[in-house]
Amino acid sequence: MSTVATTAASSAAALPFELNRLDRWLSERLPWFTGLQAAVKFAGGQSNPTYRLHAASGDLVMRCKPAATSQLLPSAHAIEREFRVMSSLSKTAVPVPHMHVLCEDESVIGRAFYVMDFVEGRVLWDQSLPDMSPADRGAHYDEMNRVIASLHSIDPASIGLGDYGRPEGFFNRQIARWSKQYRASQTDSLPVMEALMDWLPAHVPAVDESSIVHGDFRIDNLAFAPQEPRIIAVLDWELSTLGHPLSDFAYHCLSWHLSSSHFRGLAGTRPVEGIPTELEHIRRYCERSGRDIDEVLTHWPFYLAFNLFRLAGIAQGIVKRALEGTASNAQALDNRPLVEMLANAGWAAAQERSDA
Questions:
Q1: Can you tell me the distance from the alpha carbon of 332 to that of 273, in angstroms, rounded to the nearest whole number?
Q2: Does 238 lie in the same domain as 101?
Q3: What would the pLDDT profile of 2-18 be if each residue is shown by its tens digit?
Q4: Which residues are 313's β-sheet partners?
Q5: What is the pLDDT of residues 159-198, one digit of tens each?
Q6: Quick one: 113 and 165 in the same domain?
Q7: How far apart (Å, rounded) are the C-alpha atoms in residues 239 and 235?
Q8: Whole-structure pTM value
Q9: Residue 140 structural domain
């Protein structure tokens, strides 16, 4: 996390867990850990609540599942997977916080959690980078491009993640999974989502690939060094798995397709000097990963449609949790109109592929 990320103060009395109990548990497992004084919940984040732990021995970050409920979707909020993938990636060039301990015993604070280093850095919330020079904007975007290409170049088996997911049939499995989870969370009737659930399985690209994918690689899930365009930590690995790298990269490129009022995107605004166009960003990724850009662009509308559909499914899950009172963010219900907006954008991308 970042020293510049906005936080919402939480007193010990308002915390949904006992601070003293957490203090004892950590002290028993981390010999150097002493004096837990407070836990402050980070603002933002719709899924797994994240806290900055202030302690005499130094600050840490705790990430945990949301409040226990029988309505949580199967396989959602898998913080043990986050812990595993970040622990494994510590051996690579992909920057991640140092992981300390995982607790799957829900009797400690009422939910599973893990603890990692607090990283001093910058989290950039506005993708237009308004306070930077054109050269700095370009450097930050190129760094994102470099890191995601580096992630996709890692052999999962070489770092003990060969079984982190199935290496084949990613799109078919994901379409089925998010269709099921959308239906489990559904609160409104959206014909466009039904149309996407029919269209996507029939248009999966024939070429299958597999790599470690982050699943939510966007600028506000990255911590940059305080004074330079260098990523020092990739955060929020909840959706990571073995999957198609172009799905992951296309999700990252949704910035160019979503407006500034939705997910702080770049669409609908005049080009910002220094920020590459989507095509330039794709071309640089293809150069780094040794891909044929023409082949990538042929299936690009599918990759976009899939990711917009998946994002709509995620937003619908957040809405469902908000209605049940288990969302970690007070503004979670704001996602309700976003579900239809994302589904419509996904269908528009699908039609572009159909017309090609």
A1: 33
A2: no
A3: 333 433 444 444 788 89
A4: none
A5: 999 999 999 999 999 999 999 999 998 888 899 999 999 9
A6: no
A7: 11
A8: 0.88
A9: 134-355
